[in-house]
Structures are given as C-alpha cells and as structure tokens.
Design brief:
Blueprint (H helix, E strand, L loop, with lengths): L12 H27 L8 H28 L1 H5 L4 H32 L2 H29 L9 E2 L2 E2 L3
Antiparallel strand pairs: 1-2
Helix pairs in contact: 1-2, 1-5, 4-5
Length: 166
C-alpha cells in the first residue's frame, strides 16, 4: 500500500497531514476566537483590529501548515509523492462528506439567519468559525477512519442476491 512507510512507521502519510492540519488550525484560531470573544462585537467599517487579528491568525495557520507539510515531505519523500490509493480516496470521500454538512449549515446560518439579525463582523467571524470547524471535522473523521483501518465503518450491505460492493 502506498500510504505505509515501513513496519516501524505505521502512520499513513495522509493521516500525518491531517494531524498537521489540525495543529495548524487550532494553534492560531483558538487564540483568535478567544480574543474576538473577549473584545466584544466589532463596530464600524473597517474594523482594523479585527482585520489585523484575522490576518495574524491566517498567516500563522499558513506558516504552521506549510512548515509541517515541508517537514513531512522531507522526512517521507517517497510517501509524500506517492499518489493516493483506493483506501486513501475512500477515506477522503467519507471525511469530506462528514464535513460538508457542517460547512453548508454554518454558511446558511450566516447568510440566511444572521443577515437578518446581526452585524457584518459577527457574520464574518461566524463564517470563519464554520469553515474552521468543518475542516477540523474533515481531519478528525479522516484520522478516525485511518485508525479504524477502514473507510467503511459499517459492515457491507447484503441483499438476497449477495453482498453489495461499497
């Protein structure tokens, strides 16, 4: 399988990427959202403090993710350049499907509900939170599926004619 390095390193490369992504999201965005909550609602346009805070969080996210990905690439060059196999693709599909509902629900809440009752910066921060949470869910589900050893957590479905392929 293309996702295994050797017997000593049993964590697939794409699971490691999911861990890097989680780290790169939590490290900058937890302080950002704590700061936004402590500061209270931003008023006026433009709210330069919010823009600066978001810029710092976004650049920190980018730096942590890029450095983590570079470190993994240098450490596991063969794995990093290997194309995903069927299992990786199935895990990716399941993880994206799990996160999609959260992302769409959060953005519908921002666009349809909050647009009627709230201000722009609260909408902005809620949309960013929905995107960050959806990405965290995607990574957590991918890690769970890699740890579980399968992209299909349910037993294969059967019919009168036999087993259906997943």
């Amino acid at each position: 399988m293309s996702t295994k390095k050797d017997e000593n390193d049993s964590i697939p490369h794409r699971e490691k990427l999911a861990w890097v992504t989680i780290l790169s999201l939590l490290v900058p965005y937890i302080p950002y959202f704590a700061w936004v909550a402590a500061q209270g609602p931003a008023t006026g346009r433009p709210a330069w403090t919010v823009i600066k805070g978001f810029a710092v969080a976004s650049l920190a996210h980018l730096a942590i993710y890029a450095l983590g990905r570079l470190w993994l690439r240098l450490r596991d060059r063969d794995e990093a350049t290997a194309p995903p196999d069927e299992r990786d693709l199935a895990i990716q599909r399941r993880a994206v499907a799990a996160a999609y509902g959260l992302a769409i629900g959060g953005l519908i809440h921002v666009g349809c509900v909050m647009s009627l009752i709230d201000t722009g910066w609260n909408q902005f921060n809620t949309a960013v939170a929905a995107i960050v949470l959806a990405e965290l869910v995607r990574c957590i589900v991918a890690i769970w599926l890699y740890r579980r050893g399968s992209a299909y957590p349910l037993a294969p479905r059967t019919t009168r004619r036999g087993t259906l392929s997943a």
